[in-house]
């Protein structure tokens, strides 16, 4: 069993859920709560139930799946159920699901009775390589992603590859965007390894390497005062695209699909106003285009996208802050980019997909 140590907890690569079993048996929590959505309740909970059988007192809280439900209303629903089920400060919340569950579950736990312990059992590639690690919890409001939230570290994270078998190809590719991002911002060699494989062939060692990169960054800067901002490469424009798509499209983009659009735009900005060479720009963009679906939009939505970007958490004094690549495998942060260049990057994306 492999494990990665963070400042206050560990990420366990727990193929048989043995470590989770031991963790739960050896703990002295008063009650256990499992948070799932309908998908993980059906596909992932049965695996966990064998372990939970040996435990007394667990209650299930199930919410509807999807980013559109990562809201205060659903969070209130979770808090109400915790109250109805008699949760106290010695209770443990077990978040079993993708990024929506680990984000909202972490947020609900970190604020309930001023904070109860929680563990993350991520069941999507996206949440295994990104959302469940690093202690960001949160909900969306007024269409703005994660605008309300806390930095609260879980007690442990348990990664089990068998959960991924229930995912469709689109979900896997969505998670792959964050893996590519880890290579682009931190490790040229890892980026080249990823280029050599198809997302459907991802093995645990690649997930491990992604978590290792993320963990190195977040342990140095748990509350995003500086370095951690590099993890937002692709996310300033990507989050705006994702929010726009959630509000306007009948079949909205998945997070990683929007981040792929954002990475192309922000790679352009990395060259236009930063240090990324044109050769590396021309290397990155066709690779991302090859893997991710094209998102078609017109100039008419630029102002809407810009309005979303104005709410980005990295902004200072109304200026929009970006993490921009210096080269493949290295990233700067706190680059403030003018509106005209941001719009130019959207033009660039559209010209690439014409
Ligand atoms: N997903 C970016 C971060 O955890 O900082």
List the helices and strands and how they pair.
Elements: E1 2-5, E2 10-13, H1 18-26, E3 31-37, H2 38-43, H3 45-53, E4 58-63, H4 72-84, E5 91-97, H5 99-111, E6 117-122, H6 125-131, E7 136-141, E8 144-151, E9 156-159, H7 169-186, H8 188-195, H9 204-220, H10 235-248, H11 255-272, H12 278-291, H13 302-309, E10 321-327, E11 330-336, H14 339-353
Helix pairs in contact: 4-5, 6-7, 6-9, 7-8, 7-9, 7-11, 10-11, 10-13, 11-12, 11-14
The structure holds glycine.
Glycine is lined by residues 130, 134, 136, 228, 231.
Fold and architecture overview:
It is built from 14 helices and 11 strands. By secondary structure, the chain is of the alpha/beta class. The chain folds into 2 domains: 2-166, Rossmann fold; 169-353, Dehydroquinate synthase-like - alpha domain (Dehydroquinate synthase-like, alpha domain), CATH 1.20.1090. It has a 4-stranded parallel beta sheet. Strands 1-2-9 form a 3-stranded mixed beta sheet, covered by helices on one side. A two-stranded antiparallel ribbon has the order 7-8. A hairpin with a 2-residue loop joins strand 10 and strand 11. Helix 6 (125-131) runs parallel beside helix 9. The relative contact order is 0.11. Residues 130, 134, 136, 228, 231 line the site of glycine.
Total of DSSP H or I helical runs spanning 4+ residues: 14
Question: Judging by the overall fold, what is the CATH architecture of the largest domain?
Answer: Up-down Bundle
Shape: globular
Helix content class: 40-55%
CATH class of the largest domain: Mainly Alpha
In CATH terms, the superfamily of the largest domain is Dehydroquinate synthase-like - alpha domain
The largest beta-sheet arranges its strands as 4-3-5-6
Give the distance, in angstroms, between the N- and C-terminal Cα atoms: 47 Å
Which structural class should the secondary elements be placed in?
A: alpha/beta
The fraction of residues assigned to DSSP E strands is 15-25%
CATH topology (level 3) name of the largest domain: Dehydroquinate synthase-like, alpha domain
């Amino acid at each position: 069993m492999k494990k990665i140590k963070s400042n206050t907890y560990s990420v366990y690569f727990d193929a048989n859920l043995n470590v989770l079993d031991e963790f739960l048996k050896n703990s002295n929590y008063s009650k256990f709560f499992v948070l799932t959505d309908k998908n993980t309740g059906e596909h992932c909970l049965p695996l966990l139930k064998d372990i939970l059988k040996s435990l007394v007192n667990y209650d299930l809280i199930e919410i509807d799946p999807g980013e559109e439900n990562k809201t205060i209303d659903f969070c209130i629903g979770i808090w109400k159920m915790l109250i109805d089920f008699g949760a106290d400060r010695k209770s443990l919340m077990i978040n079993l699901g993708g990024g929506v569950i680990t984000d909202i579950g972490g947020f609900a736990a970190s604020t309930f009775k001023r904070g109860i312990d929680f563990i993350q059992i991520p069941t999507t590639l996206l949440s295994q390589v990104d959302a469940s690690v690093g202690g960001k919890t949160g909900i969306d409001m007024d269409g703005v992603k994660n605008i309300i939230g806390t930095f609260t570290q879980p007690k442990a994270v348990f990664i089990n590859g068998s959960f991924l078998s229930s995912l469709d190809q689109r979900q896997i590719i969505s998670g792959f965007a964050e893996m590519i991002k880890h290579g682009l911002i931190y490790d040229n060699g890892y980026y080249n390894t990823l280029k050599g494989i198809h997302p459907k062939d991802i093995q645990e060692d690649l997930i491990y390497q992604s978590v290792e990169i993320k963990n190195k960054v977040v342990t140095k800067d748990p509350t995003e005062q500086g370095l951690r901002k590099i993890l937002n490469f692709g996310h300033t424009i990507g989050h705006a695209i994702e929010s726009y798509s959630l509000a306007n499209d009948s079949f909205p983009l998945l997070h990683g699909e929007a981040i792929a659009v954002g990475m192309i735009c922000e790679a352009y900005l990395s060259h236009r106003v930063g240090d990324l060479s044109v050769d590396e720009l021309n290397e990155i963009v066709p690779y991302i285009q090859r893997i991710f679906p094209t998102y078609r939009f017109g100039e008419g939505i630029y102002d809407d996208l810009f309005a979303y970007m104005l709410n980005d958490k990295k902004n200072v004094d109304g200026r929009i802050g970006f993490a921009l690549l210096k080269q493949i495998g290295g990233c700067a942060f706190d680059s403030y980019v003018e509106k005209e260049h941001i719009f130019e990057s959207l033009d660039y994306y559209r010209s690439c997909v014409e």
